[in-house]
Design brief:
- 25% of the residues lie in helices and 19% in strands.
- The protein is α+β, with helices and mostly antiparallel strands and 267 residues long.
- It folds into 3 domains: 28 residues; 116 residues, PH-domain like, CATH 2.30.29.30; 49 residues, no CATH class.
- The strands form 2 sheets. It has a 7-stranded antiparallel beta sheet with strand order 4-3-2-1-7-6-5. Strands 8-9-10 form a 3-stranded antiparallel beta sheet.
- The chain starts with a helix and ends with a helix.
- The relative contact order is 0.09.
- InterPro entries: PH-like_dom_sf (IPR011993), PH_domain (IPR001849), PX_dom (IPR001683), PX_dom_sf (IPR036871).
- Pfam families: PH, PX.
- This is PLD1 Phospholipase.
Length: 267
C-alpha cells in the first residue's frame, strides 16, 4: 500500500481526507445536516483518487464501477453484486438443452442499471457478459412463486428472462424498486411502441443525418443506405451500446437481424 501511494502521479491528490472523530451519539440534531455534508465530502474526495476509486472494495461499498464515470452512457442507476442464473434466452441456440434445475448454474456478476439497458459484468475482469435492453415487454417479478428461486428476481424483455438471486426478500425488493423507479423515470420512452413499430422514440437534433435514403425494411428504420454510394448510416445510439443489438424484435430468425450480422451481410 505504501509503495502504491508513493507511485501516484504528480498532480493527483495525495492526502487522505479525514472524517470527524466525534461519536455519533454525542452529535446534536441540529448538526445532522453538516455531519451528512462531511460524509459526502469524504466520499467525494476518496473517489477523486484513482487508486481508491479503482479498488474493488471501494467500488463495492459505494456501489460504483468503472462505467459509473462515463458520462456518454447516460444517467447512473443502482449497481451491485448479484447471483445470476444461466439460461432464459429467447434466442435459439443460447439456452441450455435441459429443462430441470440440475441444468442451471449460478454465477456472481456485477449488475449495472442504466436508462435504456441493464448489463452485468464479470467481477474479476470487468468484461461485459450480457446487455438486457429496455423494451415494451420490460417487466420485473419478485418472489419464489414467480422465479422458482428463494428471494428471486425475474427481469423480462423481448429477448430474455433474467433470473437473479438475492440475499433476502428485502434485498430483492430493494433491487426491484430501484430498477423500476429508475427505468420509469429515465427510460420511459423505451417502454412503449413508436412510429413504424420501432422501440426507440424519434430523436431530434442528432448527429446522424441521412440524405436521400433507401430504407431496408420498416422495422429497420434506423439502418439506412444512401442510394448513390451505398454508405451505411447507423444511428449513434446503437454504437454506444453494442454491435450485438437485434434490429428486429422479438428474435425469431437466429442472428440474422443482429446489427453486426447485417453489416457483414451488406458489406
Amino acid at each position: 500500500h505504501t509503495v502504491r501511494r508513493q507511485s501516484i502521479k504528480r498532480g493527483e491528490p495525495r492526502q487522505m481526507p479525514s472524517l470527524p472523530h466525534t461519536a455519533e451519539s454525542t452529535v446534536r440534531e441540529e448538526h445532522f445536516s453538516s455531519r451528512r455534508k462531511q460524509l459526502e465530502d469524504y466520499l467525494t474526495n476518496i473517489l477523486k483518487m484513482p487508486m481508491y476509486r479503482n479498488y474493488h472494495g471501494t467500488m463495492e461499498f459505494v456501489g460504483v464501477s468503472q462505467l459509473s464515470f462515463i458520462h456518454d452512457l447516460g444517467p447512473k442507476g443502482i449497481e451491485g453484486f448479484i447471483m445470476k442464473r444461466s439460461g432464459g434466452h429467447r434466442i435459439p441456440g443460447l439456452n441450455c438443452c435441459g429443462q430441470g434445475r440440475m441444468c442451471y448454474r449460478w454465477s456472481k456478476r456485477w449488475l449495472v442499471v442504466k436508462d435504456s439497458f441493464l448489463m452485468y459484468m464479470k467481477p474479476d475482469s470487468g468484461a461485459i457478459s450480457f446487455v438486457l435492453l429496455v423494451d415494451k415487454e420490460f417487466n420485473i417479478k419478485i418472489g419464489q412463486k414467480e422465479t422458482e428461486t428463494k428471494y428471486g428476481l425475474q427481469i423480462d424483455n423481448l429477448s430474455r428472462s433474467l433470473i437473479l438471486k438475492c440475499n433476502s426478500y428485502r434485498h430483492a425488493q430493494w433491487w426491484r424498486q430501484g430498477i423500476d423507479e429508475f427505468i420509469r423515470k429515465h427510460g420511459k420512452d423505451f417502454l412503449t411502441e413508436h412510429r413504424f413499430g420501432s422501440y426507440a422514440a424519434v430523436q431530434e437534433n442528432t448527429l446522424a443525418k441521412c440524405p436521400v435514403l433507401w430504407v431496408v425494411e420498416y422495422q429497420d428504420e434506423l439502418l439506412c443506405f444512401q442510394a448513390t454510394s451505398a454508405v451505411v448510416f447507423i444511428h449513434l445510439y446503437f454504437l454506444r451500446l453494442s454491435p450485438e443489438i437485434f434490429m428486429k424484435r422479438p428474435v425469431v430468425e437466429g442472428n440474422r437481424w443482429r446489427l453486426d450480422c447485417i453489416l457483414k451481410r451488406k458489406a
